[in-house]
Amino acid sequence: MSWRNLLADSLTSADAVKRRFPAADTRGIEEAARQYPMRINPYYWGLVKDIDDPLWRQAVPSSLELKDVVCEADPLAEEALSPVANLVHKYPDRVLFLVSSQCAMYCRFCTRKRKVGTAEMVIDDATIALGLDYIRRTPAVRDVLLSGGDPLLLSDERLEWILAEVRAIPHVDIIRIGTRVPCVLPMRVSQRLCTMLKRYHPLYINTHFNHPAELTAEAASACGRLADAGISLGCQTVLLRGVNDSPEVIKELLRGLLRMRVRPYYLFQGDMTRGTDHFRTRIETGLTIMKSLIGHVSGMAVPHFALDAPGGGGKIPLLPDYVIERGERLVFKNYCGEICSYPDGY
Fold it and tell me: What is the pTM of this model?
């Protein structure tokens, strides 16, 4: 079955969930889906094994989404940082360019769940033109991140048009694509798509896997095709309560990603997005996980642990505290917890 047919056959209602899982909370699913759209394509739905398992929690709407009184609709102030529609300019040398309003699955923890997949997110030729014009007349921009929604939900032809326009801008050094397609709809990553993408190097893709159960043979093949096209792959994992908030799960995930030629890039503290408070973990949880990784797995498997500061403050790196004393000697603990020192008085 083609990826388009799979997408067309996506689950979009509580009734579809109930047919496979009669004990599902139909009312809660319906209520949440009215506020935040639901889409689970058959591929990802086939990976879900039980009610409330780690993949279920990422995919199936929950009444908990409507009980969030802590988080904000736009916690990263993206709208305030948009000089034109669907383009966010937060950092001096890079922009986030939203080119698609659709995703292959609407993740329940999405930062942009306020608008992705809804009529609130209008992306068309006019908005794309405005974004391209802004990049052309802003020479400080050297890095363009295409996101959405998911850019790989666009047709090959439309995506190539956008890539070609961005690549033609002299001051743009690199183009990045943020996509969850290799995880949630890997059959979309065709050889034809990869052949097209390799024409626009230097091109980087940051994808998004959160749990080892997502590291399927299909996902590995999709990532392999992208890697064979010379595209560097990174993974941005979100720390989610009840999904991956343990050292054991994260270790398995990161090792599996490296086997698939995907470099762990970020482990994110969950954004304070309205409707996602039930996913958020304590920062100490992430620091404990980082301690379990540093020195215990290959350095290539260790991501940056970071939070995206509310109000548009940008990504803040978070590290376990190894330093005990600073002075003429730096006194610190090593990864085993042993106290060491280093002369630092020069």
Answer: 0.95
